[in-house]
Design goal:
Chain A has 308 residues and is mainly β. Chain A has 3 helices and 19 strands. Chain A has one domain (2-281). The longest helix of chain A is centred in the last third of the chain and has 12 residues, at 295-306. Chain B is α/β, with parallel strands linked by helices. A 6-stranded mixed sheet of chain B has the order 6-9-10-3-11-12, sandwiched between helices. In chain B, strands 2-1-4-5 form a 4-stranded antiparallel sheet, with helices on one face. In chain B, strands 7-8 form a two-stranded antiparallel ribbon. In chain B, helix 4 (110-119) packs across helix 6 (138-152). Classes of the chains: A mainly beta (308), B alpha/beta (250).
Chain lengths: 308, 250
Amino acid sequence: MTEDLVEEILESVNLHRSFNKNTPHLIINANEVLSSHQVEGLIMEPEELPDGVRAKLRVKKGVKIGSPVHLCFGLLPERGVQHIVMDIEIEDEAEVSFMAHCTFPNAVEVEHLMDARIEVGRQARYSYFERHWHSEEGMVKVVPVARIELDERARFSTEFELLKGRVGLIDMDYLTVCQAGSSAEMRARIFGRQDDVIKIREAAVLKGEGSRAALTTHIAVKNQARAEINNEIIAEAPYARGHVDCKEIIQDNGVARAVPVVEVRNPKAHVTHEAAIGSVDSKQLQTLMSRGLSEEEAVDLIIEGLLS
Amino acid sequence: MVILEVRDVSLQVNSSLILNRLSMEFQAGYVQAVVGPNGAGKSTLASLIMGLPDYQQHTGDILFEGKSIKNLNVDERARLGITLAWQEPARFEGLKVSQFILAAAKNKDKKEVDRVLEMVGLEPDRYRSRGVDKTLSGGERKRIELASILAMKPRLVLLDEPDSGVDIEAIDRIFEAINHLKKDGTTVLLITHSPKVLEKADYAFLICRGTLVDQGETSKIIEYFSGKCLPCPHQNVPEFNSAAVSGGKI
C-alpha cells in the first residue's frame, strides 16, 4: 500500500523510472511519511502532525552531501490540507542541495502550507530547487513562508518553479538576512492562467559587509490571472550589493503589478532594480512569425524562454 | 522567372510619403540588392514585403510567384517561403540558440542546429546552449539569425543591412552564408547602403525617397550610387520632393 502511494507520487512528478531509493530522500503524502533515506552527515527527523509533517534536517559541520536530497511533498486526495514545518540547519562549511517536488495531481480544493526556518552556517552552501506539479483544473492554495539566516560567507540559492497545471493561489513570503560576505539568490518562475492569483514577497537584508543578494522573478499571466510581486532589498553594510529583477508578460485580461523596493543605508552599498511588465515584445513575435510560427506558437516560445 | 513583384506600391505614414509608386521585379535564384541612402525607404520596403503589422496599409500590390500576398499575415508569408533578417535582430531572454534555430527549421533533427551553426562559422559546442540574449555580440547575433534562416530553407530572404554593427570576420561569414543561400536556390534580397555589400549582388535597384531611380547590373549601380549618392545631395534640402525623380533620374 505504502509502496503504491510512493509510486503514485513519483509518477505524478515523472520520477517513477529514474528514482533511486538509495539517494537521500524524504517522501510525504498528506501527513504520512512514506519513505526516507539519509546518508552520512545528513540527519532527517520527520514527525507526523495532525495536518502535516514537521521535519528537522541537519547537515553536519564540514560534510558535503554528494547527490541532491530529494524531497517530495504530495497530497493525492482531491481535498485536504498539508502543513509542512521545516527546520533546516546547515552547519559551518557543509554543502547540500535539495531537489523538491510538490505535487497535487488530483486537487479540487487543496491547501499546502509551508513554514521553513533555514540557517546556513559560516562558509556553508545551500541550494534548493522546488518544482510544483498541480492539476489542470483544481484549486490549490500554496502558502510558503521561509525565514533564512546566512552566516558569514554562506551561499544560499533557491528557485521556485510552477509551470505545470493551474496555480490556484500562491502567496509566497521569503526573507533572507545576510551576514558578511554571504550571498543569496532567489528566483521564482510562475505561469498563471484562468483566475489564478500570484502573490510574491521576496526580501533580503544585507547586514554584513560585502554581502550580496539577487532576487529574480519571471511571471507570465493570461486569461484573468493576476500577479503581484513585492521584491525588496535593504542594504545596511559597506560593499553590500543587490539586484532586483522582475519581468512579467501579460496576455488577454491578465493583470500584473511589480513593486521593487530598494533601500540603501550605507554610502558604500549599491543596489539596483529593473522591472518590465507588458505584452510579448513585438519584435520577438514578428521574428518568430517570419520564420513560420503562428502567433500562438511564437508567444508560447517567448514565454517558455522567459520562464526557463 | 520573377519570384517577387512590387507593383505600384505607395505607403504614407502620417503626412510623409515613404514609398511612392514603387514597382520592381525580382528574379528567382539571384542575389539582388536594393540600395539607397539613409531614409530612402529600403527597410520600409523590406518590412512591407514581409507584411509586418505597421506596414500593411499600402496601395498597390505585392505578388509572390504571381499571386497577391497583400492580405497575408507575416506567418502566412513565411510559410510561403519568405523571411526577413532584421538590421538589429531581436534578443530572446531564456531561449537557447538551439531552440531558436529549431523553431524555424524544416528539419527538426538536432544535428541541423550544428550544421547551420558551422555554416555561419560558429562552433556548435560553444553556441548551441547559449542564450539568444545580450551576452551575444552584434556579429554573433546576426550570424545566429542567418543560421536560423539557413535551417528554414526559405524561397526568398530579405537581409536588412547585413553588415551593420558587425566586425570584419563576421561580415565574411555573413557573405559566405549568402553564398550558401544562393547555392541552395534561395533568392536573396540585400537591403543596403554599403557599396561593399552591394558588390555581392548580381543585380541592383537604386531607390531614393521611396522612388525607383535606376536598376541594372551591380557595377553600373555602384558607379552611380558611389558617384552621386554618397554623400546624399538631398539631405537638408526640404523643398526636394519625389516628383523631382519621377522620370527615373535625379
